[in-house]
Amino acid sequence: MSAELTQFLLTGITIGAIYALVALGFSIIYNASQVINFAQGEFVMIGGMTTVSLVDGGMPLPLAIALAVVVAAAVGLLLEKLAIERARGASVVTLIIITIGASIFLRGLAQLVWDKNFHALRPFTGSTPIAVFGATILPQSLWVLGVTVLIVAALGWFFGRTLLGKGMLATSHNRLAAELVGVRVKGMLLLAFGLSAALGAIAGILTAPITITSYDVGVMLGLKGFAAAILGGLGSGVGAVAGGLALGILESLGAGFVSSAYKDVIAFVIILAVLFFRPSGLFARRSAERV
Amino acid sequence: MLEVRGLTSHYGRIPALKGIDVDVREGELVALVGANGAGKTTLLRTLSGVQPATGGHVRFDGADVTHAAPDRRVGLGIVQVPEGRQVFAPLTVEDNLRLGAYRRGGKAAAATLERIYAMFPRLRERRASLAGTLSGGEQQMLAMGRAVMAQPRLLLLDEPSMGLAPLLVQEVFAYVRRLKEEGRTIFLVDQNARAALSVADRAYVLETGQVVLAGTGAELAANPQVQQAYLGL
Q1: B29-34 and B202-207 strand pairing
Q2: ipTM for the assembly
Q3: Which residues of A sit within 8 Å Cβ distance of B?
Q4: pLDDT tens profile B208-219
């Protein structure tokens, strides 16, 4: 394998891991409510921007990160409480439009709270590239990959092993039956928004030292995460991760071998291609139901 | 145990229940029969709290639960096996059962799970299968097992025999009898009026959202009106 190709793959996997985290956020809310939360990218922005300003204010990095995740989760909970829950009984399309409104609102608010400039977070542990198979990888990329693996494992445990996680899945599959076994359905939706916001914030913090952050960084990252979720099959956890990695690698290869001008085009070509040829995504839940 | 007085419920502006009075005493098996659209399922949904009551009272053990949230009612012991089974199709049989004990937590559920496998051996065999791949009869057993996992004090059964072959209908009613023998209080809705009346201690006949007749199972089964309308005699 040429060093060039290795380099593109490493870059692709790193950015793909970020897309995967954003895509997981989309999937969790989608599962709990069938809503596509277009404010997911704003959680990413809030995570990155909050960390940057706390660190600039002199706070130690680990504490700033923890606080930023809490802030983003709180915004997620408020969004559900004040906007989504209020519109209870509205159609899914209405709820999706509410999330679009929320995303514009949050972006505007970010301009006021912060500014319109670009901000960089310093890498967690130095910036000396590490040589791998003739290519190089930044220490920050290792953070991205490591944390993503941990989060995917934690989510796997939560949904596969805990009763609360199963209750959340049950709510997504059959809301009425979930209510009848005693799951507090409203609480589940709240939990989904909090969890997704926290995931988005973590993605935003991890990527802030690599890609630079600003008040509108969430627009593109949100759309890329959405493309990844669609590619993998909305609502599928495995699909979100696979979709994220695939999108990241395709993007990186496209930028490297074709032209970096087309980097962003790839995500949208993928959305269109998936919607045309395989609307349920690559890893869509196989529906096995008998009536 | 359950005391329903003047209960009303509406779909939009259309009344579905027009002042229902029903009592279920501890240890009884009470049946509710009536034609399609009479409001049987609406009554059970209102008792579980997934359909809002617009008037009247529901008391359970003397406590007013008319407007209690569904999960609170499950915690009190009012548990429903809904119409059409409503199993969690993409989850395994065992996960479905464990979710039945959602309010009780995982540890308390283990012993109950064993009891349910003893009662429904077929579910033990298929514990790792996805619930959606079970046959209709198996799904009904799963739905009943899931409800029993919650340790119900009052079990609401909505159309347990619907869509099942005659042999399976007999089997389902055998399980209903067994649950009653275990001392559970059961409120049963079924279109199969003959079978329902034969297992019931008492029964109510529901017509267009109102109780029109009440009596023991045998009394109603012998009532000419009931015979003509629901038993096809």
Answers
A1: parallel
A2: 0.90
A3: 163, 166-167, 169-170, 173-174, 176-184, 285, 287-291
A4: 999 999 999 888
